[in-house]
């Protein structure tokens, strides 16, 4: 199986490159070329080894996407990102549940009701922002009040970020429901271009979202059973079961071929469920051929 874990392209007009947790982003004038790699991350640690949703939400807010010249590449407008990620939660689970179970009743300035159970739906979705961490650092919870006090957004900007976040989550929830899924929580990143706020990065993918299957949700919840889900949470759970939570001094356990194949299978399963389309695997390419294909497709787009 050929994988792409790191890139070092030199595109026409390129002025810089940023290697993110799972994507490599190249600067070309006022555009960015985002290359999706085969890296994944959990606990803000990179582990070895969708433009569709942007199009489906373009009526809600402008987004950065201009073109997808290659299946692994999105080209878009360069935006100056806000230093926060807008996380929205419809259900109490994951890290929020772990905090709640330990006695925490307020997350990011949002008061949580007493007596809630794991995977219970909130009366209305809540927004729990985090800071935007660099590689190797941990995102940190932050409240609306702290965001405004630190000047990370103006009151007017933050009001629009909240409006966009809730509207996008509502649209994502509707799209998921049509496919028998529940959009549990997700995150959105925003930036500014020519003074206007744009939605950045990918959205509603398993790298940034958690989904439950609608069928059986109520029965599992009432019985106190784990939900059948499509997300990266099973990766985090596997890491925790193997003694890793991203803390100092801990070593990432070896990810076997079986684990990697399982992750790929979950991602394909989510793609097919949420889009209603069959995932067609491309013919196997060696890494050199894969890099050459990406470089040619992007160069052709940039120079046309």
Q: Helical amount among residues, as a percent range?
A: 25-40%
Order of helices and strands: EEEEEHEEEEHEEEEHHEEEHEHHH
Please report which band the strand proportion falls in: under 5%, 5-15%, 15-25%, 25-35%, 35-45% or over 45%.
Answer: 25-35%
Average pLDDT level: 87
Uncertain residue segments = 45-49
Task: Tell me the Rg in angstroms.
Answer: 19 Å
Classify the secondary structure makeup into a structural class.
alpha+beta
Subunit arrangement of the protein: single chain
N-to-C CA distance: 32 Å
The number of distinct helices, counting runs of at least 4 residues, comes to 8
Largest beta-sheet characterization:
8 strands, antiparallel
Topology:
Elements: E1 14-19, E2 23-28, E3 31-36, E4 40-42, E5 45-47, H1 51-56, E6 65-70, E7 73-77, E8 80-81, E9 84-91, H2 94-101, E10 106-107, E11 110-111, E12 121-127, E13 130-131, H3 144-149, H4 155-177, E14 181-193, E15 196-200, E16 209-213, H5 217-223, E17 229-230, H6 233-241, H7 257-275, H8 287-303
Antiparallel strand pairs: 1-2, 2-3, 3-7, 4-5, 6-7, 8-14, 9-12, 9-13, 9-14, 10-11, 14-15, 14-16, 16-17
Description:
This protein is α+β, with helices and mostly antiparallel strands and 304 residues long. Helix content is 31%, strand content 27%. It contains 8 helices and 17 strands. The chain has helices at 51-56, 94-101, 144-149, 155-177, 217-223, 233-241, 257-275, 287-303, and strands at residues 14-19, 23-28, 31-36, 40-42, 45-47, 65-70, 73-77, 80-81, 84-91, 106-107, 110-111, 121-127, 130-131, 181-193, 196-200, 209-213, 229-230. The strands form 4 sheets. Strands 8, 9, 12, 13, 14, 15, 16 and 17 form an 8-stranded antiparallel sheet that branches. It has a 5-stranded antiparallel sheet with strand order 1-2-3-7-6. It has a two-stranded antiparallel sheet with strand order 4-5. β10 (106-107) and β11 form a beta hairpin.
């Amino acid at each position: 199986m050929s994988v792409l874990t790191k890139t070092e392209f030199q595109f026409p007009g390129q002025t810089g490159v940023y290697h993110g947790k799972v994507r490599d982003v190249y600067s070309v004038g006022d555009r960015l070329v985002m290359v999706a790699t085969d890296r994944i991350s959990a606990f803000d640690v990179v582990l070895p080894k969708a433009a569709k949703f942007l199009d489906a939400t373009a009526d809600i807010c402008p987004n950065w996407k201009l073109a997808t010249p290659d299946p692994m590449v999105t080209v878009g407008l360069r935006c100056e990102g806000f230093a926060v990620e807008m996380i929205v939660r419809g259900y109490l689970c994951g890290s929020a549940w772990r905090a709640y179970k330990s006695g925490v009743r307020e997350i990011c300035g949002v008061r949580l009701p007493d007596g809630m159970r794991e995977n219970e739906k909130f009366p209305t979705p809540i927004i729990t922002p985090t800071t935007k961490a660099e590689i190797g650092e941990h995102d940190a919870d932050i409240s609306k009040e702290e965001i405004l006090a630190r000047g990370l957004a103006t009151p007017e900007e933050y009001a629009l970020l909240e409006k966009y976040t809730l509207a996008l989550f509502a649209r994502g929830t509707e799209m998921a429901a049509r496919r028998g899924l529940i959009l549990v929580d997700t995150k959105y990143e925003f930036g500014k271009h020519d003074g206007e706020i744009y939605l950045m990065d990918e959205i509603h993918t398993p790298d940034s979202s958690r989904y439950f299957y609608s069928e059986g949700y109520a029965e599992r919840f009432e019985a106190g059973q784990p939900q059948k889900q499509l997300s990266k949470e099973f990766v985090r759970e596997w890491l925790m079961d193997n003694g890793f939570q991203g803390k100092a001094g801990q070593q990432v356990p070896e990810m076997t071929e079986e684990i990697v194949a399982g992750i790929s299978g979950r991602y394909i399963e989510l793609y097919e469920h949420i889009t209603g389309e069959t995932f067609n695997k491309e013919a196997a390419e060696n890494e050199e051929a894969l890099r050459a294909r990406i470089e040619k497709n992007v160069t052709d787009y940039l120079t046309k």
